[in-house]
Each structure stands twice: as C-alpha cells, then as structure tokens.
C-alpha cells in the first residue's frame, strides 16, 4: 500500500511539472494580449466617437460625422459633374454646345459678309464659292 501512495504522489508532481510551466506561459501571453487589445480598443472607440475640445487641443469629429461630411461633399460633386452630361437642353454641356454653335454660325456669317463686301467693293472677282451661301457645319454633340 505505501508504494501506491508514493506512485500517486510522484505521478502528481510529474504531471504538475509538465503542465504548470506551459499554463503559466499561456496565462502571461493572454494577459499581455488582453491589456494590449484593451488599449487598442480604447483608441478605436476614441477615434469612432471623436473627442471633445480641451485646452491646447481642437475637437476631433468621430467616424459617423466624418462619413456624413464625405457623403455631403460627394453629393455636391455628383451634382456638378451631372451638369457636364447632355440631357437635351438644361445642363451646362448643352449650353456650351449652343454657344459654340452660335459662335461658329456668327464666324461663318462674318466670312460670308467679308466675301460679299469684297465683291461689292470691287476688290475681288466673284467666284462660284463666294456667291453660294453655305450654312455653317453642324456640330454634332
């Protein structure tokens, strides 16, 4: 019977000698990671919710407020870029095309008037191209 008790005690000490060091090592690692992650999580929450102004520091908006600002600015940009697409008359691109067509037509009219004036004043001989009045080229958009 005494051998059974000694066998049990030596087995228990051996098992503890094998199991305790890895458990202590693992416990230290978990504690180090939990403190590190708690600190990082605290920083994440500060960034998410923002920070109020304090002496020497300006207020920092949180992530939801920043996203709202980005969405507002993006909506403005989308509205402005939509003006560059043609829609049949009311956008900026259509107005620019109309101005270019009008300028081309006026330039064509000036050229024709200059040719006619040259013909009437006798500075140039009439040619077939000068007599025929051609419409300005149409700018297809």
Description:
By secondary structure, the chain is mainly α. It is 72% helix and 0% strand. It is rod-shaped. The chain starts with a helix and ends in a 10-residue tail after the last helix. The model has no long low-confidence stretch (mean pLDDT 79).
Key descriptive features of the protein:
mainly alpha; single chain; 141 residues
Write a brief caption for the model.
By secondary structure, the protein is mainly α. 72% of the residues lie in helices and 0% in strands.
Number of strands: 0
| Structural class assignment | mainly alpha
Q: What gyration radius follows from the Cα positions, in whole Å?
A: 43 Å
Q: Helical amount among residues, as a percent range?
A: over 70%
Order of helices and strands: HHHH
- Overall outline: rod-shaped
With helices defined by DSSP (H or I, 4 residues minimum), what is the helix count?
Answer: 4
Overall pLDDT confidence: 79
Kindly estimate the percentage of residues that lie in beta strands according to DSSP: under 5%
Uncertain spans: none
How is the main sheet built?
A: none
The end-to-end distance, rounded to whole angstroms, is 106 Å
């Amino acid at each position: 019977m005494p051998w059974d008790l000694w066998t049990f005690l030596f087995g228990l000490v051996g098992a503890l000698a094998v199991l305790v060091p890895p458990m202590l090592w693992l416990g230290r690692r978990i504690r180090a990671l939990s403190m590190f992650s708690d600190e990082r999580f605290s920083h994440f929450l500060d960034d998410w919710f923002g920070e109020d102004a304090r002496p020497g520091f300006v207020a920092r908006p949180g992530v939801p407020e920043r996203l709202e600002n980005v969405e507002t600015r993006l909506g403005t940009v989308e509205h402005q870029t939509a003006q560059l697409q043609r829609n049949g008359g009311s956008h900026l691109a259509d107005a620019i095309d109309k101005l270019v067509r009008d300028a081309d037509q006026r330039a064509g009219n000036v050229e024709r008037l200059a040719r006619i004036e040259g013909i009437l004043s006798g500075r140039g001989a009439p040619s077939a191209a000068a007599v025929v009045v051609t419409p300005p080229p149409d700018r297809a958009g």
